[in-house]
Structures are given as structure tokens and as C-alpha cells.
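Invent a record, attention on C-alpha cells:
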Amino acid sequence: MQTKEILSIISLSLLGLCLLTALAKMSMKKDKDKKNCDMMCSLMLFIAAVLIGVSQLLSETSTDNFEHNNATLKVLSADSWCGYSKKMSAQEKELKDKLAKIGVKLEMVNDSQDKGKFDKESKKAKARGFPHSVLVLSNGQKKDISGYMPCDKMVAKVKSMM
């Protein structure tokens, strides 16, 4: 369970306790007890509001929340002659699945499948070695990643560049 979910549960629990305290207050006879109940209820409401605010802030700034990124990792892979490109292409499905979890689409451009597109994209990226990857962020900014990386390392690299 993520921190923001735990904070939300605690907040809702505090609100429930506040409601129970308010109900218990109705059966109290002493003004002092009623005043203490009001103070406790106010404190619980304040804490719940703070926790909800923190939870919301975590939701908006979390590095695990990539649903609005719309970034693309374009991998230029020279499978017809490059061993490292073949290794990169072999992990395409795993890489695609792991990148999707962080809101990044994978586009493999392979010279053995579409030579024309591969040549055009390689020239545009000014690729000097292969595989060559270009991370295209949602704001249009492009960041180059040279060479082969195992899947987990590539995902970590992409995360660090976002």
C-alpha cells in the first residue's frame, strides 16, 4: 500500500472518530466534558485535513504517478548487424510493459523491419552508435540515451530523465 493511500485511510478514520465523539458529546452532562469533546473534535478535523492535503500533494508530485506524462522512448535498433541492438530488441516486450507502468510508450524502430524509417530516424537523432534511444517528453524535449542497457537499468535511466 502506498503512503498516500495510508494517509487517506488515517484521515477517514479520524473523521469517523470525530463523528463518534460528536455523538458521545450529546450524552454528556458537564460543560467541561463537552468543551473537551469540542477541542478533541477540532484537533482531529485539523489533523485529518492536514493528512488529506499531504496525501493530495504526494499524488501530484509522486514519481510513481506517471499517468499524465505521455512520454515516448524511441529505440533505434540496428538488428541486421549489431549484437547489442539484437539484445535490446530481445527485451522489447519486457521493456514495453515496464515503461508503460511509468507512463512511457515504447517505439522500437528496427533496421531489419523498416530500413527507410530507421535511416530517417537515425539521421534525425544524429545517432552514431546503436542501439540509440531518444526519450521524447510530453513538452517535446528530447533526451538521448546511447547504447544497450538491460531492461531495469533502462527504465531507471528513463525515470531519472523525466
Q: What stands out?
A: Residues 3-61 form one domain. DSSP finds six helices and four strands in the chain. Residues 63-68 have pLDDT under 50 and may be disordered.
